[in-house]
Amino acid sequence: MTISREVRLVARPEGRPTPDLVEVVETEVECGDDAVVVENLAMSVEPYMQGRMSEHVDYATPYALGQPLTGHAVGRVVASSVADLPEGTVVLHEKGWRELSRLRPDEVQAQVPDGTDPLALLGALGQTGFTAWVGLTLVAGLQGGETVFITSAAGAVGAVAGQIAKAQGCTVIGSCGGPEKGEVLRGLGFDAVIDHRAGPVRASLKEALAAVGRSHLDVTFDNVGGEQLEAAIRHMGDHGRIALCGAISTYDATSPVPGPRNLLLAIWRRLRLEGFIVGDHQAHRPRFDERMTRWLADGTVVDPRTEVADGIEHAFDGFLRMLDGASTGKSYVRLAD
What we know:
This protein folds into two domains: 2-123 and 303-334, Medium-chain alcohol dehydrogenases, catalytic domain (Quinone Oxidoreductase, Chain A, domain 1), CATH 3.90.180.10; 127-279, Rossmann fold. The protein has helices at 48-53, 127-139, 156-167, 179-187, 201-211, 226-235, 264-268, 285-298, 315-323, and strands at residues 2-9, 22-29, 36-44, 73-80, 90-93, 100-103, 108-111, 147-150, 171-176, 192-195, 217-222, 236-244, 272-275, 305-310, 330-334. By secondary structure, the protein is of the alpha/beta class. It is built from nine helices and 15 strands. It starts with a strand and ends with a strand. Helix 2 crosses helix 3, helix 2 packs across helix 8 and helix 5 (201-211) packs across helix 6.
């Protein structure tokens, strides 16, 4: 039996999460029969976790009070009673927010192949990249040569989505907060970047379209909602498609947030706005894995990431830094070497 530490939720947020919502607790971990113990190397922190801290979330099970938080993590098997998962195997699973995780074989989502960076399975080769691919390919039906707008393009999903669109020969405009992130996006191949903090997004998006020689948007991949979604609707062309992935501009709200004021344009222009939950599309995962593995190997897609904290005791602070926009690309917490 080994001592580990884990992060437990002890209160529900009212608006923006605060450090007093969680506590770090010591616990004993024993392997037992038909299980493995994994020393976690790194864990993902993601915006959706804020929603699961609330008891009102309806697209996933809320985190339980008094229980550890969960999320994707990669780690190394340090004890095993499962023949197919010997010690030393590196695996992906969803029992993050712990130093050590006891897993049944069916809780291991993937074994990390030799020579593969384990962090890639938290980013472009993991749920993050799969979300970007599903939204563009399966939901928006992206076609080569189209004009695409990615909101929160410097975030984990947005940065990969922009590169997937570029890989298909599209013209890509991304929104982000601040000039430093804008430079990162240009380095990833984005054709134009708008800073949503610098002025009205509607005007900035109009200027970006003119700069790339396009009259309208064909596809929007929206992670933000609010003003940015409204601006996208304004500049969509006829029969445009909007994949609704997130709405981070509303996550801190304590009362209902009004929707875009220009939905009448969606009727006039015959737009399609479709929300999606990536878990509904697991049957397409092998096709994504094959393509993303190839894109990463040949450099078509790179996997930007930011270490937002080091150590389980600082994990929630890292989560809050991610929510504050202090990271670019995939945000993760290092837990062990």
